[in-house]
Each structure stands twice: as C-alpha cells, then as structure tokens.
Amino acid sequence: MEMHESGEMYLETIYVLSQKNPVVRGIDICSHMGFSKPSVSRAIGLLKKDGYITTDDQKYIRLTDAGEKIAKRIYERHTLLTKLFMDIGVDEETATEDACKIEHYLSDKTFEAIKTYAKKCK
What we know:
The chain has 122 residues and is mainly α. It has two domains: 5-69, Arc Repressor Mutant, subunit A (Orthogonal Bundle), CATH 1.10.10; 74-121, Orthogonal Bundle (Diphtheria Toxin Repressor, domain 2). It is built from six helices and two strands, in the order H-H-H-E-E-H-H-H. It has helices spanning 5-20, 26-33, 37-49, 65-87, 92-102, 108-121; strands at residues 53-55, 61-63. Strands 1-2 form a two-stranded antiparallel sheet. Strand 1 and strand 2 (61-63) form a beta hairpin. The longest helix has 23 residues, at 65-87. The termini are far apart.
C-alpha cells in the first residue's frame, strides 16, 4: 500500500516519541507536530485502520511491525540528510526542515547512493 507523506510524518513522529517516552498518546503527537486534536485523531484512525498502529484501552499508541518499518526508514532518511546538509555548511534549522521535505520523495535507489557516498566521506 502506498503511504502518503502525511502518514509517514505521523509514523516518524510516533517512532521518535516512543524512543523518548514509555508511552505515546495523541496529545503528545499534537504537541510535537503542532496539529489540532481533531487532525491527529483522524490520522490515528486512518493509520489504525490501515494496520500501521494499534491503540490500547488507555489510548496509548504503538507502531505495528509494518508501521515501525516505515517509521525507521523515514527517520533514517531524516537523520542522514540532516547531517549531510549540516556537513556541507547548512545551518541546523534549515538542514532539518529541508531533510523533512526531501525524505519522503527520494527513491530507495537514490537514498542508498547517498548513504554509500556519506560513508565514503567519513
């Protein structure tokens, strides 16, 4: 199933929050992304329906294996691109913003080439 950029952003956010906190709640996603509760609730419902997340009785959100796979892929792209942009002289804020835009549109082939190139530059 094709994942849209917004879905990838939510999954990445859930992944990042789950690395920092023992539980992830909708309100945590609202705070992190700056989105309204209704927007986040709608996204959570869609991600749950598509099998990318689960919620328990306390409304804690967890990534499924499929959701975690996508989230990790996007997060890896985000962190590597941000670092690469900063290495070439871009300030951190701009590098982070640009990486966030680009990470969703790069082909796997191009990203693998960037990873290989980044390893050579170390």
